[in-house]
Amino acid sequence: MDEAKHHVVVVGAGFGGLELTRALAGAPVRITMIDKRNHHLFQPLLYQVATTSLATSEIAWPIRHLLRKRKDVTTLLGNVTGVDRAGKRVLLEDGSSVAYDTLVLATGARHAYFGHDEWEPFAPGLKTLEDATTIRRRILLAFEEGERETDPAKRQALLTLVIVGGGPTGVELAGTIVELAHDTLRGEFRNIDTRQARVVLIEAGDRILANFAPELSAYAQKALERLGVTVELGRPVTHLDAEGVVFGDTHLPARTILWAAGVAASPAAEWLGATADRAARVLVEPDLTVPGSPEIFVIGDTAHLLRPDGKPVPGVAPAAKQQGKHVAATIKARLAGDTAPRPFRYRHDGDLATIGKRAAAIDFGWIKLTGWLAWWLWGIAHIYFLIDFRNRLAVTLSWLWIYFTGQRSARLITQGDGGKG
Amino acid sequence: MDEAKHHVVVVGAGFGGLELTRALAGAPVRITMIDKRNHHLFQPLLYQVATTSLATSEIAWPIRHLLRKRKDVTTLLGNVTGVDRAGKRVLLEDGSSVAYDTLVLATGARHAYFGHDEWEPFAPGLKTLEDATTIRRRILLAFEEGERETDPAKRQALLTLVIVGGGPTGVELAGTIVELAHDTLRGEFRNIDTRQARVVLIEAGDRILANFAPELSAYAQKALERLGVTVELGRPVTHLDAEGVVFGDTHLPARTILWAAGVAASPAAEWLGATADRAARVLVEPDLTVPGSPEIFVIGDTAHLLRPDGKPVPGVAPAAKQQGKHVAATIKARLAGDTAPRPFRYRHDGDLATIGKRAAAIDFGWIKLTGWLAWWLWGIAHIYFLIDFRNRLAVTLSWLWIYFTGQRSARLITQGDGGKG
What residues does the FAD/NAD(P)-binding domain cover (chains A, B) (predicted)? Predict the structure, then answer.
């Protein structure tokens, strides 16, 4: 590789980082892609791994395989610990560092407990493959322990599964878990009836899917309740532990609690010593650069940018992709001598959420869809967006199998917590 | 379930335990199946998970799903810690116990280091899904670290992968790993040439596949060497650690060492206070009962039984299945009033091993097969033996994909050691 070429270092091979790298194809640059994982994760389908519908390898691909044809890209597995803005170097955990001409931080977000980190052991969130296999293990173990438990109260607590947070992830988890319990596992136990399992979705606000149009929130709630989910609105969770969860004046004994209530950005702001919002997102300039460092861009869930209407750009895959494309264009323009700032404008394509395997809610703004048609549209869209052809095929087969047999393919409990398997 | 019925407790849902349960269908008994995992594992293909060819869920199925139609069977996830022979109870880790009329122990084997347990952290073996994902992680990390490593000696150590033990597992691991390095990963790295990776198979004896006919051992060795594997014979490993392995007077620097050199039985002998052989296998009567306890059977890798020719019954899936069937027949005969001892006779069907994705060695005794024909036969046989139709389909697709593209579907490094992912 031509060492003399302008060196773009990209940290994070999520939707934003990959889109940026794609859009830089053919540009007079050399690229180093650094990620602490060896795989790109298709997060929109992560909840399906957590609920035994898909295998881990169906929604994750080796980054260097995705970029294998790009001889201008070097992929490194490494843990970034800081950025030397003056020396223009990215610092890695192993003590080495990588020099850059342009730096793009696309390091995403983790789930957050807003001052209640002590809740994490009892209520795992869903951001990584390990999170998904941990949740999968907890859900399946609850039923296994229920089958052995003789005390009725303890058994009911084992068969009560709580999801905290009524956003798309919470809704999708609740809908799939209730199907898993009432449909997939039915008839396989001798001492419990899995249809007695309670799935409770707790949302602090006054409706689920708050970003969607109100009628879609109402539809999604009805659809969940039809599946057997109990939806609790308007009372935030004030305490949770191994025994259960407290919201308002209700104490609900539950041995399985899942966290879908909030995220915080990666430590990029700390690395840069930059100003961040409450969720640790870097406050970027309209052109997505870091104030004072025009050669450093922050995109995706790690960036905080307001839209003309004053609302923040949402932390969704399309926003990250649009920002990746935009920054790539900015880099190319600069190399061509055009250094004028290029403000980013977010185009909102719409919001989607599935409710079980029969219904979905889609809000394109100009049109709103619900029911089985929306579900199929959602499915086709997601299969289309799956990067790798073979995974499209594998996921399509897995889904058709589940759709027609109700059986799920990845019902594995592997030992130890923290996401083995 | 009719509590009055004769209660058969089966510990272990491997090939032996499942075959026994199947063969007891319709018998006047109720069955409790206890396993410490929730899944049956198709161990003959475990090396393909370790080498990124198959996903974990393609070779493992929930036990209670396999037995869902058997209303006479209760499946329990539980860890057996002992057997009360006088009180006829199986003791579980959680303090509870299960009474039995007839007990069948089919608890299998673990890999063993023969007095060198300190080697385990440096040379993981391959018996569980976690073992497989640990090995997968180590292999992939070696190349990732090699891409970052600048010291030539350290880099060579990272690109040297050692397999200890020249049995079928060692041969299959070596052949697949060398293909992974030289074929699958080729062209995806910028600082290393994965074709420079060295794969070394170390066997203490004078030939690999010692149970096979000598000409097949010679064929397998040539086939491995053609793929690029270095085969070292006649010198046992005397030391190994994080830096490498010592055999004879050779010290080979290697950062990835895999253990395929031996197994020891589960602690069943301890639970029973029964006599065991060097590998901890229970010395059973000709009818597979435990001396002094005709109501307790031990089958599969946990049992030690000599054949008429003085050779022990091998620890392979067909032997475990035959013993499961035999014990089921004995139980039925007893319930019908025929209590005469029924000695077990092992029928040897043959030995198989694959070498990479183009060759295999099959020894049926009366006929010996090698080359691509043997490979296809092996593949068809294994797909046939896969229990669940959907997995047959999934595995077939995965294999055809690998066969024609050289690409593997499960190249995931997940965090933490001990088999996450």
Answer: 7-324
